[in-house]
Prior knowledge:
The protein is α+β, with helices and mostly antiparallel strands and 246 residues long. It has helices at 3-18, 64-84, 112-116, 135-144, 160-185, 217-220; strands at residues 35-47, 50-61, 92-101, 120-131, 153-156, 190-202, 232-245.
Amino acid sequence: MNISRLTAIALCNIAFVFALPLGAQTIAVNKENRTIAITATDKVVVMADTASVHIGFIAYGPDSDSAYATGSRSSNAIIKAVSAAGVPSDAIESESQNVAPVQEYQVDKLTPAEKAQRKFQVTLSWTVRTSADDAARILDLAAKAGANQSGQIDWMLKDENASQAEAAAKALQRARTVAEQMAKGLSVRLGALIYASNETQAEPPRPMMMRAAPATMAMADKVLPLAINPRRIEKSATVYAVFAIE
């Protein structure tokens, strides 16, 4: 191999060493170390198969005891409806609960009679874990049972590792493809993979928000569940790979 080609390979190695992400293994550049280092990113997009449905309610009363009694009836009716749908008890988790006086600014636009009935408030909320396909039904049942502060849905995957591994495999294949093209341009042959590391990156959760208005049972029986579709979830991975050249 002539001097100009050796120089090109060395410069290639130098360029990739300086382009490495922090924390990547440092590759010494010399005539004994003939390598091509590549950083590549790829992703997979899959449909969510699991959902966390956030449900809750707010109830009022003229005094603390009345508000509490109303809240007790509402909370038990909601949990009964969700449990009757086949959701196991360990898939229903309490998020928050509170009994407190209503602040004046919250009712300043109400009539005196309405204010008198809203001296205290009770709020409760839960997270219900279910399949993605069942999320709309669970939300519908809870809302019709009185969950008038509901609607956030977090979309997830049962097996996060599988999609992350797939993204890493695609990134590694991309790295090999780029390395092969570089090797071809340098008139050398790409050798074995001698080092690899990867960093998986999950997309931040994208919840769906809504606030369900209270509905009478007569009306609720005629209302279909909201048209809700599971979200697609993107998983990405960045791979740093070092290949020998021959």
